[in-house]
Structure of Fe2OG dioxygenase domain-containing protein:
Amino acid sequence: AGAMSTTTKGTAGYDRRRELQAFDDTKAGVKGLVDASVTTIPPIFHHPPDSLATSSTATIPVIDLSGRRSEVVGEVRAATETVGFFQVVNHGVPADLLAEMLASVRRFHESPAEAKTPHYTRDLARKVRFNSNFDLFQSPAANWRDTLFCQALPDPPEPEELPAAVRGVLLEYGDAVRQLAVRVLELVSEAMGLAPDRLEKMGCADGLSVVSNYYPPCPQPHLTLGTSRHSDPAFLTVLLQDDMAGLQVLVDDDGEKRAVWADVPPVPGALVINVGDLLQLVSNGRLKSVEHRVVANRSRDRARISVAAFFNADLRQTTAVYGPIEEQVTSSAPPLYRSITVEEFLSHYDGKGLDGRPALDHFLLP
Ligand code: OGA
Ligand code: NI
């Protein structure tokens, strides 16, 4: 007793841990604060100011999947080896399914407390989890965002485990977006000079988490973020965003050797695809899992909605190990990373929270 830890107690008796717990106990998320008409955001959401510039020139490529295959493969190679992000159009997921998915996420997050709090949990054993900030108690600063998480594959939840608002659409959306992910993994395999089915056969799309994000309007958006900078803990991510901007990717400003934030502008009907940490690992660093973030919602009255589909290995296959693919390792490109299980990777990722440090660095070979 008497010892004041700097992580739990800051200045003037401010008890961060207690503030986090009180916020979590409301089970109402950031939306609850907005509904209570807060005009100043609680200090747990304050992020240190960011010194990086936002660039207006850097662009994220848009790839038309109905184009000539050899050309599409070339475009996928160029994007995955540099910015790590691209958008796809003519991707085969029906437009009305995209619209219905976004609408159902809005429906859930905007339903009354009685419909939401029963789903509020941090219990990783539950396949369906509503909460605000999966890393609330680990990260240095909280994000202005609420999330509905669903472990959709390999073993989907029973329909009644899903909130009624998303029950009719979420698993159907997951299936449709998985077909697209398999197609993209084929293109990526080819781009790496591998047989088209190689990545899928490795199990890169056997697991799927559907993460539905709700970014309420923020009264002090310059003090916080919607999502802290991070790279994705997956092989591949397929992101559906509504028509409100906010997603930014860290890119090298052309010419100058400095990193800047580039907007990923909403393109009607498109889906955003990005390389995850595990694809960077198995490609031995050739494909880039690039850091990105979401700025806090600057709108006065409209929430931003996004749905991230993270494709991963089947976590029940606890002995499956992933390391740099043999053919990607040469005498001039020695292995960069050690082989790990996906479970090992995810527990490292979740254990540290979004702290601004790349999770993959932990597995670099000396
Ligand atoms: C994520 C993510 C971006 C967004 O969930 O990992 O980067 O636009 N989301 O919500
Ligand atoms: Ni992400």
